[in-house]
Amino acid sequence: MARKILEVIIAMLSKKQYLDMFLKMQRIRDVDTKLNKLVRRGFVQGMTHFSVGEEAASVGAIQGLTDQDIIFSNHRGHGQTIAKGIDIPAMFAELAGKATGSSKGRGGSMHLANLEKGNYGTNGIVGGGYALAVGAALTQQYDNTGNIVVAFSGDSATNEGSFHESVNLAAVWNLPVIFFIINNRYGISTDINYSTKISHLYLRADAYGIPGHYVEDGNDVIAVYEKMQEVIDYVRSGNGPALVEVESYRWFGHSTADAGAYRTKEEVDAWKAKDPLKKYRTYLTENKIATDEELDMIEKEVAQEIEDAVKFAQDSPEPELSVAFEDVWVD
């Protein structure tokens, strides 16, 4: 029965919604590809982590959320930030440390936020977003808002104590929060097989008495979207938290300082052959949802949008020293 309901949900997606997912995936790919070049020219201050290859996981997870639903992400949070609707010029200005940035130049790559769209922040501390997500979920429950919270992380963060403490408390208090794990197989250079004994991370949900869900092909945006629609409905209905694991892969190194020597070229190429954007383009054209010409036009529009955003950031002013201590506290 649940599968039938999901098939109906997918059938009800409009062409605009399908294309919106393609647009967001293309934005993530092009933003991070552009930033990978700009970092080496000194455009971005500080360490930067890219999510090229993981576009379907971010977009599929977030597409079914509302602007009032809240997300927390990690150091590799550009994808979720874009999928949640941040203004692209403001994002580039933020990465460049400019006054016109989404956080007035204070956050940078690892601390992006967009409160108006429900993005309460990426986090440079591994596992640092879990407890914040639980607190936000407690607020939604207490105020009876009907909103839910999603905490994004990689696989290695699930070995942090904060993960277990947060999932346990969320389960005990029956909070409306989803713990969403993008398993890209590596914690910096450490293969997951050297840090975790269990075969799949979603199995950890059993220890806390909550449902665990698994998407083997996290590069299939429709598969991720379907699963998340099921989980979102479960959590929003007051049934408490859930955990979702999707398998994906980052094409680039852990950060701009990582050459990725611990991975073979064959391994990287095998995952690139599972390109989530190409997979989704094929889905759209084969099902006659969109034409190649329409998708090509979106690609061109995104490319121009990014060039305009870079120029906006470059032309924007640096923050004045006089405002350095503003916005330290939340009103």
UniProtKB/TrEMBL annotation:
<keyword id="KW-0560">Oxidoreductase</keyword>
<dbReference type="InterPro" id="IPR029061">
    <property type="entry name" value="THDP-binding"/>
</dbReference>
<dbReference type="InterPro" id="IPR050642">
    <property type="entry name" value="PDH_E1_Alpha_Subunit"/>
</dbReference>
<feature type="domain" description="Dehydrogenase E1 component">
    <location>
        <begin position="24"/>
        <end position="321"/>
    </location>
</feature>
<dbReference type="GO" id="GO:0004739">
    <property type="term" value="F:pyruvate dehydrogenase (acetyl-transferring) activity"/>
</dbReference>
<dbReference type="Pfam" id="PF00676">
    <property type="entry name" value="E1_dh"/>
</dbReference>
<dbReference type="GO" id="GO:0006086">
    <property type="term" value="P:pyruvate decarboxylation to acetyl-CoA"/>
</dbReference>
<protein>
    <submittedName>
        <fullName>Acetoin dehydrogenase (TPP-dependent), E1 component alpha subunit</fullName>
    </submittedName>
</protein>
<keyword id="KW-0786">Thiamine pyrophosphate</keyword>
<dbReference type="InterPro" id="IPR001017">
    <property type="entry name" value="DH_E1"/>
</dbReference>
